Amino acid sequence: MVQENTSASFLGGAKMELRTEGARELYAYWDKLRTGRALPRATEVDLVDLAPILPNVMIYAATDDDDFRFRFFGTGLVRAVGADLTGLRITDIMDNPDAAESINIFTQILTRPLAAVNLYQATAHEGGDYESEHVLLPLGDKNGVGIEILCHAKRVSASGDSKTFEAGSFSGLKIIHQQVMELGQ
């Protein structure tokens, strides 16, 4: 029996469990781009290369005022959320302290740098909870300074239902499991 590889390998042989195929594909693409560096450059990412998983991809860009803006928000995510978040900021869609927690996590991903896999629990607009996996991978500028986060997000429980968030109401997302890996400099 062939066993499916659900892990991503990092520097030093450490591994993170990735539950969705899209997360594994995004990690493999990102890892190929970085070619021995801690993180690839944001300019190296070509969304055409990500076409099979693009509906569940988003890119967060750091702003000058310690927030993050959705630079790209895939169509599958638009359907799940009920709105296109492209151009919006974390503080536009979340209340404190949820926004502050997300901004803190994203800032650490860029500055340390880290790769992270977060398992979130959320309550749908129509009621009921579900879980989603988010793999968060830093992208840098030409000097290797983190400026963006490449993310694949996919529901991992009740994946057949069509429940959505209420647009603009993202408070209450809870991280129920988190794996992080230092990427080194």
Short structural summary:
The protein is an alpha+beta fold and 185 residues long.
Label this structure with key terms:
single chain, 185 residues, alpha+beta, Beta-Lactamase, two-stranded antiparallel sheet, 4 helices
How would you explain this protein's 3D organization?
This protein has 185 residues and is an alpha+beta fold. It is built from 4 helices and 8 strands, in the order E-E-H-E-E-H-H-H-E-E-E-E. The N and C termini lie far apart (39 Å). 21% of the residues lie in helices and 32% in strands.
Runs with pLDDT <50, length 5+?
Answer: 1-7, 9-13
Q: Helices and strands, in N-to-C order?
A: EEHEEHHHEEEE
In terms of DSSP E residues, the strand content is: 25-35%
Across the major sheet, the strand order is: 4-3-7-6-5-8
The separation of the N and C termini measures 39 Å
Overall geometry comes to: globular
Helix content class: 10-25%
CATH architecture: 2-Layer Sandwich
Find the CATH topology: Beta-Lactamase
Full CATH superfamily name? PAS domain
Q: What's the alpha carbon Rg, rounded to whole Å?
A: 16 Å
Annotation, overall tally of beta strands: 8
